[in-house]
Design brief:
It is a single chain. The chain is 57% helix and 0% strand. By secondary structure, the protein is an all-alpha fold. It has a single domain, classed as ACP-like (Non-ribosomal Peptide Synthetase Peptidyl Carrier Protein, Chain A), CATH 1.10.1200.10. Helix 1 packs antiparallel against helix 3 and helix 1 packs across helix 5. The chain starts with a helix and ends in a 9-residue tail after the last helix. Pfam families: PP-binding (PF00550).
Amino acid sequence: MSSSLLRAKTLLSHCLLIPVDHIDDDADVGDLRDVDSLMFEGIVIEIEKAIGAEADVMDLLQLRTVRDVARMLDGQPLNISD
């Protein structure tokens, strides 16, 4: 597992109050727990703390999976086009 993936899983574990080992690398964030707007806001705040900047709104709108969180933590744009 990459370090950014572990960081993403740790961040989500903290925000969603679930154990890291219950988070699959390819899981949809919404499937981990019933994520409401306040939980999502908490995830956004933690991502922004980790990257030291505001997250791009377009990336946040496309954020779906644990790997997406890892990409954001690495400073990579999501650029999902489908």
